[in-house]
Batch of 4 targets.
Target 1
Amino acid sequence: MLLSRVQGSLVAAVAGDCIGCLFECSGNVSMEEVLDAVQKIEQKAAKDKDETEGDRHELPFTDDTAMARSIAASLIEYKDINVPDIAARFAKEFEQEPARGYGAGVVTVLYALADPDLKDVFQPARKQFNGSGSYGNGGGMRIAPLGLFCHNQSLEELKEKTLSITRLTHTHPYAEVGALLESFAVQLALSLDNSKPLDTNNFLDVLLQRLQPTEEEIYEKHTERNRKEKDGGDKPEDKGIAGLPYCDKLELIRDLLKRDVDTDEVEEKLGTDVAALESIPTAVYCFLKGAGRSIPEIEERGPVEQTIIYAISLGGDTDTIATMAAAISGAFYGLESVPQAWQESCEGVRDALLFGEKFTEIISAREVKS
């Protein structure tokens, strides 16, 4: 059912963010520590059933969810992408609650986006890091709502909308391609038949087929743009990006899934930090690993649970990797795969459920018209 899967993606993403935040930047994280935290969350949820809603303590969400909510709300209001409105929502959300864990780089952009006299909403991000733009995972961490909203729309539409939203804060090619990988993965997961086990090889094949030409195009445009700027005397020479690093990592994921590898090897080969290239492919791997339902110590848990718990156990940027992985997993498995105790324990779940309802109404109406 479409509603369950759209809600499942949005709710799972919130849970990944809220639970992952408990371990963010804490160095090495053991599976035992994550399981202990999850079990405490579940025990507390059971005790809180007798409490009134206002007396319950929820795990807070971070900037990941805050920015994803802004995108979702804008898409619902305008029934399509409205970049100036999304920019304004990002700035307002930050102004109202600046302590959600925003990175220093994006804070500078958000202050600039709040300027009512700003004519070009893309300019602040383009100026970041001497004009090279941020290569962080901020575009990917918030893009899942768009991947859902573009269900049954063309890949080209999803690509252009993803890039527009990403470029509000991140303009480095690695950030752009990373956000595309996440939005493509969410859209793909939502489109597949979930009545049978996920074919992980096929999932990777389709992702590669969709991502490769886009990755090539973005790097070519980046190289050409920098060449023109160098000729104009504005920038030092940039030799461009060699190869297709995201496609290479997707092939590496295929290899890792075939072998019984430990978390150290995953961290070493895929990465777990805030750079888009070092975290967004990792999120895809966590989804596919959870889909196998054979992770030691958590075999008895469902695929969404396994995805989130495993993602957090890798350490590093735990909230962002977990929220991205969970968004893909929830889109495939649906709301029923997110434990009720987790839903009751995480801030923002009620809004995510409402967003899911509105998204499904818009998607269904769009399909009737077509």
Target 2
Amino acid sequence: MIKHGFLAAAALVASLAGAPRPAEAGASLDAIKARGQLVCGIHNGIAGFALPDSQGRWQGLDVDLCRGLAVALFNDPEKVRFQPLSSSTRFTALGSGEIDVLFRTSTHTMLRDVTLGLRAITPYFYDGHGFMVKANSGVTKASEMAGATICLIQGTTNEQVTADYFRSNKLQFTPVLFERTDQAAAALQAARCDSFGTDASQLAATRASMPNPNDWTVLGERFSKEPYGPYVRRGDDEWFDTVRWYVNAVIEAEEQGITSANVDEMKATAANPNTRRLLGVTPELGQALKLSPDWAANVIRKMGNYGEMYERSMGLKTPVGLARGPNELWTNGGLLYALPMR
């Protein structure tokens, strides 16, 4: 399985090396503005991050972050085209210029950041690898799964994490690889696998979508660090900066208590210099990014701050029902921390 992962990574590097590149390096922001539309790579279907609703409209945290970036650029959340991508095609699609930015449950790792011709930007969601099993299986921890058949998604870090855990603990297992999460979930329910291994947030989303969620349990152990963040192509610092500081802005808004409901009042009355900068009362942040002075205020007004996006997509009142945990602000004991916007 490790050999398989190495060969897959090598093939991906080779494919990106030969893939067509944008016509002008460093011109992404101008090209997107001229096109009048952002093209955003997202998951091809997982509740909480990216999933079409009954009307066919994409919903989820990654989707909202894409729409918010469109607001920052155009003051219009509809000026975005979503490109659903599998785990095995997402980085190739970005490297070839098929999409402008990837918001797709993608872990930041060193080798992805330095070998694929792409840049990982900044984390917006913290997760960890886990396992889901039948509730009546009697399994309470991964070490009890010796000899198990485990469903995994091809092209993810979860392949290597699972192999590393079982190998280091001298346990045997049989991997069964799938292209999509729904395929793995179907195989698990059909008893083709004893367990499904992937990030805990995606296990929670998969469990919530099953006909009988109570038949399944997500084990409490976590076996990796999986910080999700957007990716862009390497060599375009201006576009990198735009996406980086956009993500920071929605986190900063929550830190400052700025919401979609109070943003206009805060903009009109705030004396705090940090708030005035963020909301464009003083224009230097927009000028630095070649955006309008009120770009962040527009995002917050139309899409909300990070906390509003999270609760709308996967919070405790949603079917996914995932507590913030490490995705709380640092001031509440979590890991989310906006870099200073000054």
Target 3
Amino acid sequence: MIHVKTKFERPTAEAVARLAKFSSATIHEAQGRKGALNSKIKPIDRNMSFCGPAVTVRCAPKDNLMLQVAIHYAEAGDVVLVSAGEYGEAGTFGDVLGTAMKAKGLAAMVTDSGVRDTQDLIELGLPVFSANVCIKGTVKETIGPINHPVVFGDEIIYPGDILKGDADGVVVIRREEIEDVIRLSQQRDDEERELMGRYLAGGTTIELCNLTEVLKAKGLLVEDA
């Protein structure tokens, strides 16, 4: 088996930039309520956000050898996604590797393991999303695959799939679906802005969400004034 695949198709930077303006929740809803990664994956700082194609990595628990290899081969704008068996009791990534990623112009680090040096990473300005924060060190022993499909956060992720992360979590978008998802996300954004405007103008939830007949069918009883 070839461990490291260096060639895969990425979306255009222009398409990624158009997708990036939408929130993870909007994208998740717009593409049919799919693609949301497990809610354990959160940013180390709520102000962090990113959008970019995935470079997928499988690491053994408590081992960051292949993460370092992945950083070497990743390209500017890529998101390094590390599947490490959801083992949280390890600080597989910190400020040194964060500096290496920042210097290469990589978009973000996402892992189902733990990270450390979080204050330094926040100051560095590299978006880091993880399942845990842990100071425990790691080894560099085990060879694994890079840019093969991985199971991560209850989703299958392929190299070149787009990941969007923000304060609410991370969602994956298939590369071949990016234009449809951009269109559907814009449509949802427009509809929600219109709805919020109608609320500000005095509309009510039952009226604007068309709940009158739904509630009647369910037998909702309201005490008379």
Target 4
Amino acid sequence: MINALFLFNSRGDVLVGRLFKDGIKRNISDIFRIQVISNLDVRSTTFLHIKHGNLWIVAVTRSNTDAAVIFEFLYSFENLLLQYFGALTEELITDYFSIIYDILDEVLEFGYPQTMDFSTLKQIIPPPENLAMTNANNIAGLQKRTTLRKQGSISQLNLVSEIPWRKPGIKYRKNEIYLDIYEKVNVLISQDGRIVKSYIDGFIDMNTHLSGMPLCKFGLNDSLSLTGSGGGALDGYDVKNKKAIPNAAAGSVILEDCKFHQCVELDRFDSDRVIQFIPPDGQFELMHYRASENINLPFKLTPMLSETGNGTMELRLNLKSLFPAKLTATDVIVRVPMSSNTIDVDFASSGGKAKFSAEEKAILWKFSKFAGLTEHTLTATITQAKNSSSWLNVSHSKPPITLNFELLMFSSSGIVVRFLKVSEKSKYTTVKWVRYISQGGSYGVRY
């Protein structure tokens, strides 16, 4: 993982440096100063760095480590220092270097990132109350930290090592848990109606108001398959029938690039697709995923453009909803980019409100509500400036028509929450809410 970490100023001077593993010398910092800050080639040891103002935050590694993990740590460490000091300058680092060393001891254990939660760390390493903090306060904070380590305080040290994301003693009069599954539908459809690309960016957002130290768990589809970023199936498993499922099998849900909050017990998810965790208090993102197989598109948009003569063209749009009749989409907006030569547009439609925005050079067709299994048609007569070239046969220069919407209780990926359970030693009653929210992301149709 990380062999060393340094903070440099713009001149290449080391303000703070820490070595975490053997086999690397302190003068390794000279290589970064000479070869990176001086814009020379780096041929051996890998330096991963970010810049904040005139400061460099640098991680050094000699192993084949996932760079994304280290960059995530560097940005989290930068944010943590900002939470401690309010700003990040050479003078602040020089004045409070002892606190930064203490923070490094907590957030990196032999070069491996640990908890980065400010609310937990500040209980062990008190932040300076103001920029005039005395050395006595620094020493007091260090003594408190040392004492806690010797005593093995359950309320603080075990909290850091085991459940750093949740404080003990949380109480609510009404215990509630909200689980929202958001999915942004991204699709590009060619002129002939062929799907060029389609995928879903999804995440599960949770908001918990639960007392004590609750254990939450919920299960997803019986047939759920995971794939890695390389596209090959890592594992597909039908939990209900206890057997493997083929890639892209009908009715199965295939998730890619899944990322979980640190509270999730990954072993339990790998074995039976149950997401089990002790949640942080309040709102947080539990899971992020991507799906590109077996996608259910909520709308079908069919455009047809024809030239009618005398500098006019006719655009006919047909918008059909493919979701169940009991559902209703809201804030539906079809946006059709127009050429700079467009002067005016006349409309006839079976529903919604249409207008030509001269400022945006686009036709906007809006529905406050769009019921399921219905369709509407818009006919637009487009008038162009005289002697302007026809836009009909220059498809490569026309941006696609875009569609925005929000649809509740519809999952484009097919993901389903089978159950949601909350257990806590006091055995209180929990009110549970589950929602599915599909939204238009990059939803485009060429014409």
